[in-house]
Specification:
single chain, 18% helix, globular
Length: 77
C-alpha cells in the first residue's frame, strides 16, 4: 500500500488493483482505532470514521482530485 498523505493524525493509503472488495477507485484511511475505505467520490464503502475526520477526508479528496466530480455527502450537513 502506498501512503498518499498524512495529516491531523490520519494516514491515507492507496492499494493498487484493490478491486476484490470494492469495485471502484478508493483510498484507505486510518485514524487511531478507526479504519475506512472511501471512494474518490466521497462515498463511504466500508468501516467508519468520526464525522470531523470524514469531512476532512472528503475535502482532501475534492482538493486532490484533478478531475472535478460530484462529492456524495448525503449524511453530512
Amino acid at each position: 500500500m502506498k501512503k498518499l498523505s498524512e495529516f491531523e493524525g490520519m494516514v491515507i493509503k492507496l492499494l493498487y488493483n484493490d478491486t476484490v472488495q470494492h469495485n471502484k477507485p478508493h483510498v484507505h484511511v486510518y485514524y487511531g482505532e478507526y479504519e475506512a475505505s472511501i471512494g474518490i467520490d466521497g462515498e463511504m464503502l466500508a468501516g467508519s470514521l468520526p464525522i470531523k475526520q470524514l469531512k476532512m477526508i472528503i475535502g482532501w479528496l475534492a482538493y486532490s482530485n484533478p478531475t472535478p466530480r460530484i462529492i456524495k455527502t448525503p449524511y453530512i450537513v
